[in-house]
Structures are given as structure tokens and as C-alpha cells.
Amino acid sequence: xxxxxxxxxxxxxxxxxxxxxxxxxxxxxxxxxxxxxxxxxxxxxxxxxxxxxxxxxxxxxxxxxxxxxxxxxxxxxxxxxxxxxxxxxxxxxxxxxxxxxxxxxxxxxxxxxxxxxxxxxxxxxxxxxxxxxxxxxxxxxxxxxxxxxxxxxxxxxxxxxxxxxxxxxxxxxxxxxxxxxxxxxxxxxxxxxxxxxxxxxxxxxxxxxxxxxxxxxxxxxxxxxxxxxxxxxxxxxxxxxxxxxxxxxxxxxxxxxxxxxxxxxxxxxxxxxxxxxxxxxxxxxxxxxxxxxxxxxxxxxxxxxxxxxxxxxxxxxxxxxxxxxxxxxxxxxxxxxxxxxxxxxxxxxxxxxxxxxxxxxxxxxxxxxxxxxxxxxxxxxxxxxxxxxxxxxxxxxxxxxxxxxxxxxxxxxxxxxxxxxxxxxxxxxxxxxxxxxxxxxxxxxxxxxxxxxxxxxxx
Length: 459
Known about the structure:
By secondary structure, the protein is mainly α. 75% of the residues lie in helices and 0% in strands.
């Protein structure tokens, strides 16, 4: 859909415009969802010992945590088109907080797995974040806006590796909780904050620069819901959507997998942790694992920014070329990381690998808004679901007894490198290239005019 009055620049310290309020609220909401989604990961050592979980059961928990998100992301894209991102985010945060808090009532493997699966639904928040910034920002900066909001949201996956062990320690050390009660209270707190943010999202944002979907449809300024019928099917018929589905599985799917396994990977495969007590080992492993997620503070933004720059110089095909470079380098870096067995070598390699993972994600969503503007919700949802489908597939490598985790990571690296060549299927016709070029030039001209006006008013 064509939305007027999109922002042509990202003014980080401006909280007054609807575009920047949506920018800040969407990344913060996604951050909290990511935090709650993977909040249990750094505490799995305690859960494993309490519930006597086997390697296979942990593998099913990894798969379960991302499986339901595939369906949720497909649905949430359609929902955004119908009720708007504001209401979609509100309901997702409020309802999604229930299983986050509820996992504290798990008492065995079965109930823990059920809650772990249910929590995965909040991972659909990514699609709303990308949808909201896509309708708020112009083509000259939409890649950067999408990448930054998603990257800062993904940052929750790194922060939770540090903060959740600290919250867990606080409940034990200050309030005198047992380890069993400590991890449960930690998850309850994470869910409560998600619910409160859902309420804030309702009051602080709007769907588009000019208002909410309901009001704009009533005024005839947006297509009616009936006119959106068939858009999901249209997106499904486009082979480029499915190429990006797999590609996103090869980057975001890998990030989800690492968020789930990183802390346990360090604990189980590096001698550094062997003689530590449980609490200290959990905190240190969480700290090292957080290095992977914390790269999101700038790495995904870089991926989107490079996508915008390649787009300005070489058009939509330039955005796709940059996506190939990022994905290919990610696969090579993952294979190298999987061969590291000394912590001093593993950590720098992890950081390089993380850089390319998150730049690949940003690069993917610098392409997505240009695939089918009339079906932005379905395209965003399908591609986003690809990330979780990739994580589900990767999860099976970590549950099998026949393959150790370093070997599983090496296999994933080889698969990711191969997936880079799917970018050759993502092509645009001359009409789309010209439309994108004119839209970008128009946004740049408008941005320049705004700067000149601001300068003249300052004088």
C-alpha cells in the first residue's frame, strides 16, 4: 500500500513525531519480547538439573521455543494489514506475557516444554516491528530504519544472557529464594514488563504518519479490508518471497539457535568452566554468550545501511548483491567458529560471525519492502517465518545423539554458505527498478528541502 508523509530521515532524539515514536516503541517492544523469549536460555543449567532433562529433551525445548513462531509470524503479517500494527502489537504483548509468566508453574519436562512452545508466539513481534517502520519511513532510509529497530530488538537476546543470571542471583542472594523459585520469579518479572509495554504501545503510537487504519479507512484514505483479500496468496506465488524465506532462515534462524545454545555450548565444551560453582559458571557463560547478541546494537543497522547505500548506487539489484556478500561471509565465519576449542580464540571468532549474521538480517529486510508493496504484511510475515523455520530445522541437529554440537555448527555453516546463492533468484523488473529509483530520489529531495528549511529558520 502507498502511505503518504513517510519520514525521510531517522532523528533518534525526536520523540514527538508519530514516525519516531513508532520507531522507538517498536524496537523497545521487540527488545522486551526477545528478552522474555530467550530469558530462560541462560538459566537452563538450573532447569536441566532440577527436572533431570536429557540432551534430547533439551533439543526439543530448543525446537519448541521457535516452532510456534513460524505460524504466529505468518498470521501476524495478515493481522497487521487488517487491524494495523498498533493493535497487533498491543494484543501480542499482553497475551504473550501470559506464558512467559506461566512457565514458572512448570513442574516437569512436559509442562516446561508446553510453556516453552507457547512463549515462542511473542517472536512474531519482529514482523510487527518491520511492518510499522516500513509504513513510517521513506525508501531512502527504510532499510536503515528496519535494520535498526530489528537490531536493537534482537539486542534483547544478548542482554538477557547477562541480566537474567543477575536477576536470578538477586532473587537468591537478596530475597533468599531457592534456585528453583529463583528462575521462576525471574521469568514472571520478564512477562510482567512485557504486558505493561503492551499497554504503553496502545497509547503512544499510531498505525501510519496520518493516523490509525480504522480512521483512515473510514475516511477513504486506505483500502478497505475487503480489498486486501488475495494478497497473501499473491505473496505465496512469488518465488522471490520463498527465496528470502530460506535466506532469512539462514541468518535469523542461526541467531535464534545460537541464543538458545550459546550458554550451554560454552559450559559443556570449554574447560574454562569445569571447576566453577554453578552460579558463577552460569553468570560467566551468560556473559560470553551475550557477546553474540550484543552485536545487534550496531551490526544489523550496518546491514540495512549498506543495503540503502547499495540501493542508491545500483538500484534494487544492488541491495540483493549486498545480501549475497553478507550471507556468504556469515557461513564461512560460522564454520571457522565451530572449529575453535580454546576460549581465547572462540570469542573473537564468535564476534566476527555475529557481525555477519546480523548484517545479513538487516540486508534481507532492506530488500523485503520492495518485493510487493500491496502485500507488505504477508511478505514480511512469510519471510519472517523463514527465520524460525530455519531455527526449527537447525534444532534437530542439536538433539541428535550422533552429532556433537561443534559438528552441528559446522554443518550449519556449510548450509548457510550454500543458501547465499539463492539471492540469484531475487530479481526485479525494470518497472520496479525505476519506481524505486524515483521514490528514492523524491525522498532525498524532500530530505534536502527539510534541511534547507530548518537551516533558514535557524538563521
